[in-house]
Amino acid sequence: MKSLLKKIIRLALLPFVTIDYWRFYRQHDGRFRLRLQDVYPQIKDKTITTGFDRHYVYFTAWAARQVAELRPKEHVDISSSLYFAGIVSAFTPVRFYDYRPAELSLSDLKSAHADLTQLPFANDSIVSLSSMHVVEHIGLGRYGDPLDAHGDQKAARELTRVLSPGGRLLFVVPVGAESVIEWNAHRIYSYEAVLALFPALKLKEFTLIPERSGPPIKDAPPERLHKERYACGCFVFEKS
User: Fold this and answer.
1) What is the pLDDT of residue 42?
2) 144 and 222 belong to one structural domain
């Protein structure tokens, strides 16, 4: 009873939702149960355009296209978006690893635990590898990992170690005009700071996803980052 009263009060405080409810109530034909105790008002979705997370929509789409172009026999992903791993597994077998393993169950997708600072793979063993929007968190303790000011550097060394000669690494982090830690959420890297993480690898592509508007910019000039605070940098590295 208290729950129903709370919902009625909430509706009363949202006049346009209440009006829409009664207008719809008069239209509905009884195919579905429609009761006040089942109301679940949504008030933020009547927008002119559909909003989206620019980083996660664009970088996953960018990375999926990279894997589709390379067509490896298998792709290994370390802690990136679950949406990316799930979609890519539709056309390429994927091994997905996370510090907090995900209980995913899909064909051609295997999920297991791994610590990015101590990867359980042999040297030079992975042809197609990705770790995207991950390394900026390593060592900050946000996800239960140990505090380590050099955690991102250790992770980068591990990614370099396991990548095979001729193999490609898809690497994504927040980028901006300068290197900053927004404790304990993430690091933001300058363009130069990202390259410094991978001295033994060759940069093949840099695509910039601007923070506020516009599509991804392939082969963006590094100076373009001077206008950004929290943009998204998509890097393709190759081991010679």
Assistant:
1) 83
2) yes
